[in-house]
Amino acid sequence: MQILEGQGVTKFFGGLAAVSNVDFAVGQGEIMGLIGPNGAGKTTLFNLISGSFPLSSGEIRFKGQKISGLKPHRICRMGIGRTFQETKVFGNMSVLQNVLVGAFFGNPVGTSGSDAAREATEALEFVGLTAMGASPINDLTLVNQKRVEVARALATKPELLLLDELMAGLTSTEVGEAMELVTRMHDKGITILMVEHVMKAIMGVCMRVMVLHHGEKIADGTCNEISCDRKVIDVYLGEQTHAGS
Amino acid sequence: MDITRLVSTHRKLLLGGFLILVLIFLATFPIWARAYDVRVLALVLIYVVLAAGWAMFSGTTGYMSLAPAAFFGLGMYAMALLQYELPFPLVIAIGGALSFVFALLIGLVTLRLKGMYFAVFTFGLVVFMTEITQYLETRLLGKHGQAIIPIDNQTLFYIMVGVAVATVLVTYLIRRSRWGLAMLGIGGNEEAAEHMGVNTTGVKVFTFAISAAFMGVAGVVAAPLLIYVNSNIAFSLYYSFLPIFMAILGGMGTAYGPVIGAVILGYLDTRLRAQLFNYFNLGFGIIMVLIILFLPKGITGLVPMLQDKLGGAMRRLRKGDREERHANT
Questions:
Q1: Do B188 and A93 touch (CB under 8 A)?
Q2: Are residues B192 and A89, on separate chains, in Cβ contact within 8 Å?
Q3: Does residue A41 lie within any of the structural domains?
Q4: What is the DSSP string of B242-308?
Q5: What is the domain extent for residue A129?
Q6: Which residues of A fall within a CB distance of 8 Å from B192?
Q7: Does a structural domain hold residue B24?
Q8: B327 in the same domain as B197
Q9: Nearest residue on chain B to A76, judged by CA atoms?
Q10: Residue B66 pLDDT more than 90?
């Protein structure tokens, strides 16, 4: 069953088609990768799914329901969580408060204070930051801020989680930890769509990969299919990657 | 013996006691104070409502509203035009409701503006209100300015006590609720807040309207205190900027910060401004610059700073004590 489907998804910025006539589908329970060179439209596609701005044309459906045109907070409450490429934490709050925002507002029915607090604590524990709950968020390193973003998104109880370059700027040990985190979230039953430049991570956890280039979808398939795809190698992977990982 | 520990363990009790003392002071004030001072304090309370009302919305969301004068003036004019038609309590309610609805409409149109665009718009709104009121007044009523029948200052004072307490209480309750968390989220990162399920437009517009309602009520009560109202007095930008300075002076990190700022500046403003106009503005300007430079978190921001320094000094003292004893043995 498809949890997320897009048909003819298009977004113009002025005359530039940032995303152009893209059809895509994410299956329930999948971990799907979204790759492509810088400026290919990956983050734009995320922004269209999460409702940051309206589509120029096309339609996006979540669990069969049309979500394109809805406001971001509605889309979030329907069950789509996300993180941001450039971390967007609430700089004026503690770590736990950051996650509490997700726990309070991300669920469709009014959550009680104690429930929200419990969910936020659990989400923090899940990403391994329990000890830092009371710290001001700005005291955390970038890696940990990204984890807080994941916890904050988890606290909204998403069925589909959009991860925008979770692993950018991490050391290889940290990438390993982040991959493990993605796998654990998947084990909880969350479908994941992730934008990533770290190919090791994509190949390591993703079941399927979609490739964007100049706003157009140029390939879609399993990791093996993608890494052998002539077009993908030309525009993105290059010859070396083809051989290995 | 240990004062810092005493304060930290009995914080709630001390705070409650202090608040009760303040309320007793306010309740008995007209009985023992001079009539003139009752009037001064009533004016100060008006500033308290404006400053706390401003901080209720702008302090947490970071949206710089320069519109207090628009809502305050609307309240004044409601009083000016309805004073002969309706009883005073009803006019108060209407002034608040009018400002609420007006702010709701303004908010729906403009709160998608971000940063300085919103500030500039609200600034323009006050100027617009001045002009349109003057135009309509001269056109429809054939005069500029309205005399207000005085109401005895003691009554006005007690009403203002009630309004001020309500404003601060509502600010406090909002701050500690999930609604306050949503506003803090908007101030921290609006895009992220939206994506975490916060209905940012709804939260912003509604809070903006609530804060405007309090300002409108303050305007209704201010009118009989000032006795005469015209468009330049009612919609004076002074009423937009002064509450902001008060909130900055007091500090916006807490619900009571703006109150402290409003009491200090409001008192100085009502007592000294008329007497030493030029010197007052000069001194006022210098003080504001110094505060923004050295005390960006305002007077209430001093508390944690002093606690830090004092705590450190105490620890050093105790440690020194112990070392000395150690050396002696």
A1: yes
A2: yes
A3: yes
A4: HHHHHHHHH-SSSSSHHHHHHHHHHHHHHHHTTTSHHHHHHHHHHHHHHHHHH-TTHHHHHHHHHHH
A5: 80-157
A6: 84, 88-90, 152
A7: no
A8: no
A9: B197
A10: yes
B181 CB neighbours in chain A (<8 A) are 97, 100-101, 104
Q: What is the pLDDT of residue A107?
A: 82
Token readout for B249 is 């002076």
Which among B181, B187, B196 is the nearest to A106, CB-wise? B196
Q: Report residues of chain A scoring pLDDT below 50.
A: 241-245
Q: With CB atoms and an 8 Å threshold, state whether B184 touches A104.
A: no
Q: Indicate whether B140 and B286 sit together in one domain.
A: yes
Find the residue in A nearest to B182 (Cα): A101
pLDDT confidence of residue A5 = 93
Q: How many CB contacts within 8 angstroms connect chain A with chain B? A: 75
Q: Which residues in B lie closer than 8 A to residue A138 (C-beta atoms)?
A: none
Chosen from B173, B196, B297 to mutate, greatest number of chain A CBs within 10 A = B196
- Its ipTM equals 0.90
Work out how many domains chain A is built from and give that number: 2
Residue B141's pLDDT band (boundaries 50, 70, 90)?
confident
Long-range own/partner contacts, residues B124-131 (CB < 8 A, 24 or more apart)? B125/B66, B125/B67, B125/B70, B126/B66, B126/B67, B126/B69, B126/B70, B126/B73, B126/B235, B126/B237, B126/B240, B127/B237, B129/B69, B129/B70, B129/B73, B129/B74, B129/B231, B129/B235, B130/B73, B130/B231, B130/B232, B130/B235, B131/B231
What mean pLDDT is predicted for residues B196-209?
A: 94
**Contact criterion met (CB < 8 Å) for A101 and B181:** yes
For residue A245, what pLDDT is reported?
Answer: 44
- Nearest chain A CA: its distance from B184 CA (Å): 7
Estimate the crossing angle of helix A142-155 against helix A95-105, to 10 degrees.
Answer: 20
Residues A135 and A167 in one domain: no
In the numeric block, the tokens 């001079």 are attached to B34
